[in-house]
Amino acid sequence: MQLLHRGDAGPAVSEIRSILVTLGLLPPNGHAGSTTYDASVEHAVRAFQQQRGLITDGVVGPATYRALTDAKWRLGDRSLAYFVSRPVSGDDVFALQERLLELGYDAGRPDGIFGKQTEHALRSFQREYALNADGICGPATLRSLKQLAPKVRGGRPVYLREQEKVRRAGPRLRGKRIVIDPGHGGNDRGAVVNGVAEADLAWDFARRLEGRMVATGMEALISRGPGSCPPDADRAIFANEAGADLFLSLHVDSNRSPEAQGVATFHFGTGNGTTSNVGEALAGFLQREIVARTGMLDCRTHPKSWEVLRWTKMPAVRLEVGYLSNPRDHARLLDPAFRDTVAEAVLVAVKRLYLLGKDDQPTGTFTFDDLLRYELTRAEGA
Ligand SMILES: [Zn+2]
Description:
It contains 14 helices and eight strands.
């Protein structure tokens, strides 16, 4: 598709405007002829991109356009069904998947795409509630879905299964497969401050981490080449096809304010309380280890339904290590010793996830050597 940006006009722009109005990001505009991509549209697009974890450039390209058209659907706006050749996607599908999970039906990890597993869960629901088990979410099915109280409390089946998988995987890192996803790349440099680009830093972090993980016997796969920038959806597909145990996306932040600084980690979750418990636990370990070892500001963990977190079928997190726009963080990021420290902190955080919190090493003290020794002694004992 053609990129849409400030100054453009026409039917595509009116469509975007009306979606932004529906989403409450743009005030309803009474006067006629509001088909231009003006400053207020650009502002609203940026706000939308920020919410969805897209590149915040104020331009509507394919990813932003898809996210906008998905966002306009509310559950009940249309009938939903599984079309093999052209799967339906949208926020209404996401809401349906969440609802099925709440009711105890295994619709898989909610991703907003009506796939085979969504259909299967919907049919089971319809059968149990004596509805026509056609796998179509029409008005009657929708009414029943809305009337019922949630069966599952304190954890949805898909997330309980993630936890069980981690428990069964055992404490050793050897043989575990992780996809390391350096953000941006190629023509997309990410944040750039004083000639330092996020894409290059993310790549450097990925390589440092990869080396350490391979040394422990883990299988570390990198989601992109040094000079390419696949879309987030492709990065998620790469991890799914690799059957990865974990997905770790690496980014560096920037902000208009030079005061903004620190480290934050994002895991899959929505405002309605759907959260990947394993993702949240890993995010927590990452924050603790990095903050303890570097003294960076703790900007905490946050649930997000960004594409890369939503479409990955394994626990996934996105790490934002420092702000290039903050002089102190900037200087640290340029220091290779700092980047080694962060790589070590990440490795130990992953280790802690598999130790299930059962270790006596205080946060920030577990070294790479300790870890290798642990892996070796376990290997001999096994
Ligand atoms: Zn980034």
